[in-house]
């Protein structure tokens, strides 16, 4: 079965005008491709409209894959935004669904997840880093999140905070909230163009209208499948472009690459199998119930992306070791994907206990 990406002249024009010319700047100078992300919304690629949930999932996943072929950093930012919209699409809070969600869908502002720590908390790996205290008309939040990506002055992001021993809340926070400090983080091995900040909450007031749910324990398992699902196409973009890089180097040094143990044909077969498994699952109406299958696909995507980028580095040879080569950028992108929550070790733990 063939799964076609949402290719159109309009999308191709957006990539050519607002993303491709800036890839080196994104990678080397921490440039944030905000204009591209907003343009996706302004051109209707993020709108829910009359779409079914399956149509939204497939469209969003394919959009991430197409973006990742050119720049996985920006595709990761897009994932952050899609995850953020998922929270609002699934909340019972009418204010967030009717007033804030349209801004995210229409390219008027951008959103982020803020759920790396909570996902690890629910997997038994970390304690929650944020505390919530009830006050008149809302909650006051204190604590610190080490890294949240896709943030900016007019952005929003989700958080989970401990209200008491038996209750955790989830809220949607504007980056310009009073007493919220954003501290830039741009000293990573890659993906510095992801607009990542650490977030310090010093008695930040969150009104009730910004509550996604007062029962995060029940809400997080509902959103987790979609949180993970939108990540897989990040790897698909890396893998397909690594295979293309291998093919580009096929005839170098009189065909010596034919002696390397991992060849493009092998990777192509594994990639085609992984991609078909993923899109069949993403297009299934019961995807949210097939969590173990989704987690295994996510884990397989992480391992195959590492295999593909390593092979591409060897096939490209000395050219791959240039500082701004596409092959070395994808190598760093793949290592980021391997350590993106849920990380490889996180996934291995989750699957071993299911």
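^ structure tokens above, recovered residues below v
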């Amino acid at each position: 079965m063939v799964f076609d990406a949402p290719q159109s002249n309009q999308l191709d024009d957006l990539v050519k005008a607002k993303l491709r010319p800036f890839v080196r700047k994104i990678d080397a100078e921490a440039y944030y491709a905000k204009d591209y992300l907003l343009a996706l919304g302004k051109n209707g690629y993020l709108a829910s409209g009359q779409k079914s949930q399956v149509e939204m999932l497939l469209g969003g996943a394919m959009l991430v894959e197409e973006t990742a072929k050119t720049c996985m950093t920006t595709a990761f930012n897009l994932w952050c935004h899609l995850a953020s919209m998922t929270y609002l699409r699934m909340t019972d809070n009418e204010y967030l669904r009717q007033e804030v969600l349209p801004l995210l869908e229409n390219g008027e502002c951008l959103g982020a997840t803020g759920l790396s720590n909570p996902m690890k908390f629910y997997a038994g790996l970390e304690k929650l880093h944020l505390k919530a205290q009830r006050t008149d008309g809302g909650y006051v939040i204190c604590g610190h999140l080490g890294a949240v990506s896709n943030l900016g002055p007019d952005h929003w992001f989700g958080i989970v905070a401990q209200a008491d021993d038996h209750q955790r809340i989830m809220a949607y926070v504007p980056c310009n909230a009073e007493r919220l400090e954003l501290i830039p983080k741009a000293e990573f091995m890659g993906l510095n163009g992801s607009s990542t900040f650490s977030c310090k909450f010093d008695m930040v007031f969150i009104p009730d209208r910004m509550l996604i749910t007062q029962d995060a324990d029940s809400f997080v398992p509902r959103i987790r499948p979609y949180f993970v699902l939108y990540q897989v196409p990040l790897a698909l973009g890396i893998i397909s472009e690594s295979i293309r890089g291998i093919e580009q180097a096929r005839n170098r040094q009189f065909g010596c690459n034919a002696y390397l143990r991992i060849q493009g044909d092998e990777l192509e077969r594994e990639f085609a199998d992984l991609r078909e498994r993923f899109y069949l699952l993403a297009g299934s109406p019961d995807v949210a119930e097939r969590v173990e299958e989704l987690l295994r696909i996510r884990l397989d995507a992480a391992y195959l992306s590492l295999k593909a980028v390593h092979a591409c580095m060897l096939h490209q040879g000395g050219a791959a070791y240039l500082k701004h080569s596409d092959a070395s950028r994808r190598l760093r992108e793949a290592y980021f994907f391997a350590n993106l929550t849920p990380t490889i070790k996180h996934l291995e733990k989750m699957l071993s206990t299911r």
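The longest strand covers residues 196-207.
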